[in-house]
Amino acid sequence: MGISYSPLRYPGGKNQMYNMVLDILEKNNLRGCHYVEPFAGGAGIAIRLLFEGVVDEITINDFDISIYSFWHSIVHQTDEFVALIEKTPITIDEWHRQKYIYANVNEFSLLELGFATFFLNRTNRSGILKAGPIGGLDQSGNYKIDCRFNKLRLIALIQRIAENRAHINICNLDAKCLISDFHRDHSFFFIDPPYFNKGKKLYTNFFELDDHRELAAIIEANLKDIPWIITYDVCQEIREIYAKRIVDTVSLNYSLQSKKKANEFIFFNKLSV
Known about the structure:
The protein is 40% helix and 16% strand. It is of the alpha/beta class and 273 residues long. Strands 3-2-1-4-5-7-6 form a seven-stranded mixed β-sheet, with helices on one face.
């Protein structure tokens, strides 16, 4: 799985692809580039590339207001966020309180929503925001609700990210709008849309088939001369959408109810691979 610098847990987190992405950047003279993730989620590769000095700037974009709130809060309200980690008990009672905040977006600030998202991500099964708590509501499981919530480690990680805020852009745009309006040289896009087959189970903002087709058309129209890769779960519908593109497959570990392996498509543009 390798090193993870993201404070968020994601099933099938693309951090497993770090070495492949690093190799692509080096082969294509893209060290020092502006690295963009339109569907950032946990942004594990972006953060690691920045920490290790491979890229000079990253853009973390997520249309899901809860995920955006988390990234905005740790970058721009770091001290307040750290204080919440320090004082908040990791209990089932607190889980219910944070779940209420997460479910009632308009009643709370970005900081409160960002922390609720973080809390649920660290305490839910596999980090899935729609799932229940690790160990169950009665805490009868082998693992308890706090087993993925090492406060000292997470605080140190968040503070390190915040120290790099001058090189981090946080956006809350529809990915299609971000791609349509992008005008920057020496950039690289890592595009990781919602899974086609399991999107409804995993994401707040999932895609239907027409959304995947529209995204592909916008990418083809606006990123012709910009190097990018797109990752997808393997399925015939997606292969047909990107039929003209070079394709490879990679096997990733992911964890939902249990650890499994799955193949994913990778499509390329303007890259030597």
